[in-house]
Amino acid sequence: MKKPNVSFTSVFILLVIILLPLFGISQQSLKRETKPDYVLVIHGGAGAMDRSKMSAEAEDAYKSGLMAALEAGEKILKSGGSSTDAIVAAILLLEDNPLFNAGRGAVYNEAGEIAHDASIMEGNEGKAGAVGAVGIIRNPILAAKAIMDDGRHVFLIGKGAEDFAVKAGIDTVNPSYFFTQPRWDSYEKTRQTRLEREFPLNPKGTVGAVALDKNGNLAAGTSTGGMHYKRVGRLGDAPVIGAGTWADNKSCAISATGHGEYFIRSAVAHDIAARMLYGNQTLEQATDDVVMKKLKALDAGGGIIAVDKDGNIAMPFNTSGMFRGYVKAGEKANVAIYEEEN
Ligand code: ASP
Questions:
Q1: Which of 9, 34, 193, 206 is catalytic?
Q2: Is 206 a catalytic residue?
Q3: pLDDT in tens, 290-332
Q4: Ligand 1 atom index nearest CA of 259
Q5: Residue 285 CB burial class (10 angstroms; 0-12, 13-18, ≥19)
Q6: Which of 17, 54, 138, 186 sits at a 20 to 30 Å CA gap from 310?
């Protein structure tokens, strides 16, 4: 009785040993077939967007701004460049575009000043850099990158950050460079009427990008003027590593936009990566749980863009719109604003 049992067990174990690697190989090749060579996802802010109030010209202007940013980033990824360079190229164009609340088109704080926040992170070694409350750096994302590359610190704010940027050879400008009539009009309106002083303000126009490059490296970056009429000295989630920005080659890259106070308190970007890493959630499940359940339950408006290590993307938002776009190797670039365009 004992003999046949032993031989059955040995045959079974042998079969498992032979078949398991084969199964593993076929799974891997399947993944290799579907994983795109590179991916770039961008956003230009989430918020309440009423389709009936946006003119066709305005829609076109936003969409062509997003498209130009995607093209600039894709050019780098296509030629084998890094995800870091690609997201910086995309964010630079969005910062220079006065339509978006970052760089040139930033909103004013309650003192009528510009105070930019920006951050960047690389998924390979987990390097990161961030600036907060800066007002003379033409492209804050470049200052964040210079801090990351320098490596001594992660986060510099105010004058220290500006001095560092000057020493690093980054362009500075007179604050009047950031003047845009629509932003100034909203500032004046709030100052005079004292309406909209408290949250929820209508955040829109923060910019961000995430990418996966041909070497499998992820990167994420976010840049903003912050909340309209914010208190002097207020920092949002955009420059906070783990809240507005996160990248880890083992899970995903995230850039967020929305009501920053809640995004900081929920460690949004890191929470999504942690759910994938420790809870085995897919990118879709993790982003959906955080944006559509957790943040929504807090009445925290906003959204995120994400790409995971396998090139899957997610762009959930719980507001009526989010300026967004993506491009994958071999596919046409895609931009959208409203929910129903998904
Ligand atoms: N998250 C940004 C902040 O709180 C604002 C935004 O994304 O619109 O500063």
A1: 206
A2: yes
A3: 999 999 999 999 999 999 999 999 999 999 999 999 999 999 9
A4: 4
A5: middle
A6: 17
